Amino acid sequence: MVKGYKNLKVWGKAYKLTLKIYRLTKSFPKKETYGLISQMRRASISIVANIAEGCGKKHRKEFVQFISIAIGSCNELGVYLLLSTDLEYLTKKDCNEVISNQEEISKMLFGLRKSLES
After folding, report:
1. What is the mean pLDDT of residues 30-54?
2. At what angle do helices 38-55 and 92-117 cross, to 10 degrees?
3. Greatest distance between any 2 Cα atoms in the chain
4. What is the tens place of the pLDDT at every residue in 55-95?
5. Which of 32, 60, 62, 98 has its CA 20 to 30 A from that of 117?
6. Is the CATH code 1.20.1440.60 the one for domain 5-117?
């Protein structure tokens, strides 16, 4: 198993994405405080938190389960990013950059899960 979640490249990338989400959502309309802002931040935090929590589990099967949850949160974040762009809360440039990061993290998580399952 992995010795510490901070040693995982995917965790580092997901952590940076979470920081980026926090910065970007600062400029969202106040009416979205309990809507998109909250949902996007929660989903991005869920990615890094589930990687960390899974890494601390005793059994590989448990780690796989937490990685699967992180994948779901990553996909959820992708939907919020598209919605934020269509609502014109994010510029297309910002959205493309963040979606690119989100998609890369998703691929990395799928790869990690596959390696843990074999």
Report:
1. 96
2. 20
3. 46
4. 988 899 999 999 999 999 999 999 999 999 999 999 989 99
5. 98
6. yes
- Who contacts 16 (Cβ-Cβ below 8 Å, separation ≥6)? 101
Query: Could you give the CA distance from residue 63 to residue 113 in angstroms, rounded to a whole number?
Result: 8
Tally the residues of the chain: 118
Output the six-digit token pair for 104: 């890369």
DSSP single-letter state for residue 33: I
| DSSP letter, residue 87 | T
CA dihedral 48→20→103→60, nearest 10 degrees, is -10
Half-sphere exposure of 108 (CA within 13 A, CB side): 18
Per-residue pLDDT tens for 94-106?
999 999 999 999 9
Rounded CA-CA distance 29/110 in Å is: 34
Q: Can you tell me the distance from the alpha carbon of 17 to that of 98, in angstroms, rounded to the nearest whole number?
A: 7
Q: Where are the chain's structural domains?
A: 5-117
Orientation of helix 9-25 relative to helix 92-117, angle to 10°:
150
